[in-house]
Write a structure and sequence with these properties.
468 residues, TIM Barrel, 3-stranded parallel beta sheet, 10 strands, binds zinc ion
C-alpha cells in the first residue's frame, strides 16, 4: 500500500514536471511573440484568475493563504500611485520587460492624475485600490471612517478610469497593512479581496536602491515564490526595478499576472492547499498524524504538602527497624545512617573465561617514527646534561698547587695566633683543618655563623661532574 502511494506521488511529480517544462516552453514561445523588440525580456509567464470571494484574505505576511503560485513564480505589486514622474517610469520599465503587475492606487492620487490610472489599465496591468487618502493608521480609524476610505478610494479610481462607471477589479490593500477585523469584514462584505504580501523590499524607507534590490532578491530567495510589495511613487524603486527584473530573468523566476474572475473568465482551477505558501507535503509524516487533543483538568484541587517536620528522624527509626539498629559510635554519638539500598549482588558469569587472551605482539610495537623521536629526545637531554656539567666544572675554583696550600696553612696559623679568643687551640685547630681541606679539595670553610649560608657539602656535591 505504502509502495503504491510512493509510486503515485512520483508519477504525479513527474507529470507536474513535464507539464511545467511544457508550459515553460509554451510561455517562452508566447513571450517571444508578446514582447516584440525585446527578445531577452522577462515577460509574463501566465495569467492567474482568482475569485476574491473564495479567498478574501491573501498574503502570508498576515494571512494563512496566499496566491496559488508554483515555485519560482512572482507577483509584482505597486502601491500608492499614480504619481506621474515615477509611476510612468515604472510603467516604461515593466513594458520593456513585458511584465504585468497589479497597482494599488490611492483615490486622491487618481483624482489628481486620472490619466495615470488609465495608463496603468491600458498597459494591461491590474488596477486595484488602496483607500482614498492613505490614512497612516487605518486600523485605529473608527470603522465608519475606514469604510468611507475604502468606498471613496474605489469611487475615485472608477471615475478616473471613465469606463462607463465600471468599477476596478475587487482587489484592495490596506494602507500600511494596518488591518483590523472590522476592515476585513467590510471588505469581505463588499466582495473585495484583501491583499497583504509575502515579502517586502523596504522601498518606502530611507534606503538605497541597491538595498531595495538586495532585500527583494534575498527575501524572494528565502520564500521561493510569492507576492512582492513595491511602491511606484518611490525614485529608489524606479532605480532598483530594472536590476530586479534582470535578476529574476537570470535566476529563472517567472512573473504571474493576476486578474479577478468574471462571468466570462472563470477562476483558474486550484486546490485549497495551493493557497498556502508552504503546504504540508503528503510525504511529511507529521501532516498525516492526528492532532493532539487538548487536555482540560476537571479537578484543580491541590494535593496536601508533605509533613516536613517529622521527615528525617521518623525515616531514621523506620530504617533502623528495616536494616538493623541505628549505628552508634564512641560516647553514644549516632553515626550517619546506613544506606537503605541493599548491597550489590555478586554477579558470576558462568561462561566467563578465567584467563584473558594473550595480547598480540603488535600491541607493544612502537611505530618507527615515534621510536626515533623518543631516541632523539633522550640523546638531546643527555647532551644538555653534559653541557651543564662542563659549565659547572669550568666555574669551580681551581685546585690549589702544593705551594699555595703551604702558604694558606702558614697564613691560617699566623691568623690563629693573633686571635683574641681565650679558648686555647680552637682557632689553630680550625686553621689546620682548613689547610687540610685545601690540600684535598676546594671546600668552603664554615668557620662561624656569618658564613653559615655558604653552600654546604650537599650543594657542593651537586656541582660534581656526572660520571660518564
Ligand atoms: Zn500604501
Amino acid at each position: 500500500m505504502a509502495g503504491n502511494v510512493w509510486v503515485g506521488v512520483r508519477t504525479r511529480r513527474w507529470a507536474a514536471m513535464v507539464l511545467a517544462v511544457a508550459a515553460g516552453a509554451a510561455s517562452e514561445a508566447a513571450l517571444a511573440a508578446d514582447c516584440p523588440g525585446h527578445p531577452d525580456a522577462l515577460g509574463t509567464s501566465r495569467t492567474l484568475v482568482v475569485d476574491p470571494k473564495e479567498h478574501p484574505l491573501i498574503g502570508t505576511m498576515q494571512y494563512r493563504e496566499t496566491l496559488p503560485l508554483e515555485d519560482g513564480e512572482v507577483v509584482l505589486t505597486f502601491d500608492d500611485g499614480p504619481l506621474p514622474r515615477n509611476s510612468n517610469q515604472i510603467l516604461d520599465i515593466l513594458a520593456s520587460q513585458c511584465v504585468k503587475a497589479t497597482f494599488f492606487l490611492v483615490g486622491r492620487q487618481a483624482q489628481a492624475n486620472p490619466e495615470g490610472v488609465r495608463k496603468v489599465r491600458d498597459a494591461g496591468h491590474t488596477v486595484a485600490t488602496h483607500t482614498q487618502n492613505h490614512p497612516s493608521s487605518m486600523h485605529r480609524l473608527p470603522i465608519d471612517r475606514a469604510k468611507q476610505e475604502i468606498d471613496d478610494g474605489i469611487a475615485s479610481v472608477t471615475a478616473a478610469l471613465g469606463d462607463d462607471g465600471a468599477a476596478p477589479p475587487p482587489f484592495f490593500r490596506i494602507p500600511g497593512l494596518a488591518r483590523n477585523d472590522g476592515i476585513e469584514e467590510y471588505a469581505a462584505a463588499k466582495g473585495l479581496q484583501v491583499w497583504s504580501a509575502d515579502f517586502l523590499a523596504d522601498d518606502w524607507r530611507h534606503v538605497s536602491s541597491a538595498r531595495v534590490y538586495d532585500l527583494a532578491m534575498q527575501r524572494l530567495t528565502a520564500n521561493g515564490k510569492g507576492i512582492l510589495l513595491l511602491h511606484d511613487i518611490q525614485p529608489r524603486t524606479v532605480a532598483a526595478l530594472p536590476r530586479i527584473l534582470q535578476e529574476l530573468k537570470k535566476r529563472g523566476y517567472r512573473i504571474v499576472h493576476v486578474v479577478a474572475a468574471t462571468a466570462e473568465q472563470p477562476a483558474t482551477p486550484s486546490e485549497p492547499q495551493q493557497w498556502q505558501l508552504h503546504p504540508p507535503s503528503e510525504n511529511v509524516a507529521t501532516s498525516r498524524w492526528p492532532k493532539l487533543p487538548n487536555f482540560v483538568f476537571a479537578e484543580t484541587e491541590m494535593l496536601a504538602a508533605p509533613q516536613l517536620t517529622e521527615s528525617w528522624w521518623n525515616d531514621s527509626a523506620i530504617l533502623a527497624q528495616s536494616f538493623g539498629r541505628a549505628r552508634r559510635g564512641g560516647r553514644n554519638v549516632p553515626l550517619p545512617r546506613e544506606a537503605p539500598w541493599p548491597g550489590q549482588p555478586e554477579i558470576t558469569l558462568a561462561s566467563a573465561d578465567p584467563t584473558l587472551p594473550v595480547p598480540a605482539p603488535g600491541v607493544f610495537e612502537v611505530a618507527e617514527g615515534l621510536r626515533r623521536a623518543m631516541q632523539d629526545f633522550s640523546s638531546a637531554a643527555r647532551r644538555a646534561e653534559q653541557a651543564a656539567a662542563i659549565k659547572a666544572e669550568a666555574e669551580r675554583p681551581a685546585k690549589p698547587t702544593r705551594a699555595e696550600a703551604r702558604q694558606t696553612r702558614r697564613a691560617a696559623v699566623a691568623s690563629a695566633s693573633r686571635g683574641k679568643r681565650t679558648v686555647a687551640g680552637r682557632p689553630v685547630q680550625q686553621a689546620r683543618s682548613a689547610a687540610r681541606a685545601g690540600r684535598t679539595a676546594a671546600k668552603p670553610v664554615i668557620s662561624d655563623k656569618k658564613n653559615a649560608r655558604r653552600p654546604g657539602r650537599h650543594q657542593e656535591a651537586l656541582l660534581q661532574p656526572a660520571p660518564g
